[in-house]
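Progress note, sequence design subtask.
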């Protein structure tokens, strides 16, 4: 996990962003709510596609 710098281990709860980067769910949820709505690695918008579509309308 590039946020906490800990290894991703089988059995942990992970979240995959639309850009396919994986993070611990707790880490990325905190990141997305307090830091930025973009992936920490590639800076792509991390808003789920269904929410992004609603924003555009």
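Output:
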């Amino acid at each position: 996990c590039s946020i906490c710098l800990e290894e991703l281990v089988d059995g942990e709860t992970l979240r995959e962003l639309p850009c396919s980067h994986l993070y611990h769910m707790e880490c990325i949820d905190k990141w997305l709510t307090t830091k930025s709505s973009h992936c920490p690695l590639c800076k792509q918008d991390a808003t789920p596609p269904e929410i992004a579509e609603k924003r555009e309308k």
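The CA atoms of residues 38 and 45 lie 4 Å apart. Work on this subtask will continue into the next period as scheduled.
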